[in-house]
Amino acid sequence: MIKQTQSLYEARAAIIKALAHPTRLFIVEMLQKRDYNVGELVEMIGADFSTVSKHLTTLKNSGLVSDERKGTTIYYHLKTPCILNFIGCVEEVLQINADEKLNVLSYCRK
Amino acid sequence: MIKQTQSLYEARAAIIKALAHPTRLFIVEMLQKRDYNVGELVEMIGADFSTVSKHLTTLKNSGLVSDERKGTTIYYHLKTPCILNFIGCVEEVLQINADEKLNVLSYCRK
DNA sequence: CGTATATTTTGCTATATTACCAAATAAGAA
DNA sequence: TTCTTATTTGGTAATATAGCAAAATATACG
């Protein structure tokens, strides 16, 4: 592959990679509703502070999320809501996968 | 997080993870145009046959791609073109990231 | 300043991913 | 069946990632 093309795909993959974790997907969906701070997310997720903080840093570095300090707490904000359309497509894939499994099963029963 | 919710996000993340690699993104975009076999993709990508084949298996296992044998060769097919809308959004994120870097630079120059 | 609160960073270990090579398999042709 | 082409699988080394706990940082306030 041409070097330039390679770089483009690497840049894209880096962003997608930032989304490719259950906790980070959850965070992104939460941030769709409103901004949250680490503590609130920790409570919802049930992981360590440091773990959630790291996930937020990953999302921030990818450019999907921004942060803003308000007094003592830092609020995280979803910069690119178009990401959520994508999750609709992912859901579609899951649905198709599930349907296909059902088909295989019904075929076995015949 | 509730166990059920956890499972849902894991399932979604698994699909996104399948996309989160430059070579696999490239393959998905190529398959948007038409079906390809491993050999053709190897030529475009410039990696080992086994490497590309493994990437195709990853895409197939996630349900994004299907395969069909025609004579001696196996052709790969993009099952869910909605994925491509998502890449548009990723591109948007890249654009914003680039713009922000430019802003920071111009700010430094003042 | 010193203390409390909120969050991030670091150090560590365990696990996962990827690439390449070589060997194995699958399907069709001779 | 044996050859040939197309593709996958297994093994391995290098690299990346996740998660927890402890230490460090940053801001607010008395």
List the helices and strands and how they pair.
The structure is a homodimer of 110-residue chains.
Chain A lengths: L2 H17 L2 H12 L2 E2 H8 L3 H14 L2 E6 L2 E6 L4 H27 L1
Antiparallel strand pairs in A: 1-3, 2-3
Helix pairs in contact in A: 3-4
The structure holds a DNA duplex (30 and 30 nucleotides).
Report on this model:
Two copies of one chain form a homodimer. Chain A is α+β, with helices and mostly antiparallel strands. The first copy, chain A, folds into two domains: 3-79, Winged helix-like DNA-binding domain superfamily/Winged helix DNA-binding domain (Arc Repressor Mutant, subunit A), CATH 1.10.10; 81-110. Chain A is built from five helices and three strands. Chain A has helices at 3-19, 22-33, 38-45, 49-62, 83-109, and strands spanning 36-37, 65-70, 73-78. A three-stranded antiparallel beta sheet of chain A has the order 1-3-2. In chain A, strand 2 and strand 3 form a beta hairpin. In chain A, 30% of the residues are buried. The mean pLDDT of chain A is 91. Chains A and B meet through helix 1, helix 2 and helix 5 of A and helix 1, helix 2 and helix 5 of B. The first copy, chain A, binds a DNA duplex (30 and 30 nucleotides) through helix 4.
Considering the chains and any ligands shown, give keywords for the structure.
3 strands, 110 residues, Arc Repressor Mutant, subunit A, homodimer, alpha+beta, three-stranded antiparallel sheet
